[in-house]
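Q: Entry one of two.
A:
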Amino acid sequence: MKKIITFLAAVFCFFSVSFAKNFISKRFFEIQLGVPVDFANNTMNFDEIFVKDLCIDLKKIADDVPDEGFNLIALTNPYFGINFNFGPVHVGTNLELDVYENLSVSKDLFDFLGKGNEIGQELNVDVKNYTDIFVALNLDVGIEFKKFSLFLNPSVFVPVMSSSKTNIHLAFVNDENGNVNFSADTNLNMFSNLMLNSSNQDDMINDLIKGIGFDLGGSLTFPVNKFLVTATARIPVIPGSYKYNMNMTTNTGYQVSLSDFSTKDNSNGNSATVSELSEKQYINRPLKVNAYVDYKMLAGLLEFRGGVGLGVYHPFLEDAFSYPEYYLSAGLNFLDFLKAKVSTEYTNQLFKHQFAADLNIRIIEIECGVSLQSTNLAKSFSKTGFGGYAVVSFGF
């Protein structure tokens, strides 16, 4: 009987400690792996594309494309990290791959494909592409005081590839003689620290190291009445740089006679070069400044968060542009053991509506989320884009 009572007391003590918020939410040591993926456009619903019997209605697509043209954004940011928590002190590091793709095509192309054009009317189409790939090593150091917490996140990053200066211009015109005149001016401009035709791994590693940049992030959290305010930022300090430039230009022109389908070549020549830059081409990761307000009800069972911010693509460079950000969420939190949350946000130029859940049993925590998204607010409630993420943390 005494053994049974002792065993039950031990089990009771274990679960009493296990389900205490601080015990559940903080592992002394953890390994973390996360994989987020976002893919969205502003026009086409994916359930109309991925079907057994595909029917492409070009006129409908032309009507659906907004005045600013077709836009597609894809991004992912997988990472692997190790964290330590010593009482109020946190120390962690993670290695991440940051991939960003933004493609835009002017509306005129879709109007031409869906509705055609009139005699003598010149149709101009512009295609622009932005691609950035970084590898970053981040350090996360923080301390929690009684009324506020402070975290610093210095990062070193290596720019792997960028194509932010890629442009394509197409022109069509039907003349009164029954000819179709077509011209294309293409400038594909890609910067990299990898010489793709090199077989010397030591040289490739040295080129990557020489292009290293540095940025500094951080966050400050403090209470204001019944609210908890958090300010976060990531500021470029030292830009990364590229060593190689891969450039391809084309100037192509054709005249096609609709009477006999004969063609006349009016091209002015093409060129393609891969060269080492005489001057460094600098690049920064996006600048981020955000502020959040958290509010909890019913002893933390209900959690609410709202935030606003600003992002700057390629900050301090000639092709920089800024965009606003916002975030709103509401969730349930059962002693940090089980969480569920719905949120809406505009981040990285994507409107996103997400449901997320988190299961934490101390030695392992699994968090995942799915979202509908788009580069257009009205389309973000349809199926023009999908996203998801999964984070697995385990330790003791």
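Q: Entry two of two.
A:
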Amino acid sequence: MDLTNARVEFQTDINSFGEGVVIAHDSSNGRLVIRDDDGIHWRGVDEHIEVIERPDERTSHA
């Protein structure tokens, strides 16, 4: 499942976590790129994330 645009929590170190939005995801190998709220990119694998909100769960407002 493609996680692009999902809001996620990701592990940056043993006891460190961040939160951001997936801007690229290759579901064939699990590699992804996340942009955090400060605009910093994190690259890793989808095994080290927890999905907070999927794009299809968001409600749009006019």
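A: Comment on entry two: The chain has a mean pLDDT of 90. The beta strands are 7-11, 17-26, 31-36, 41-45, 49-53.
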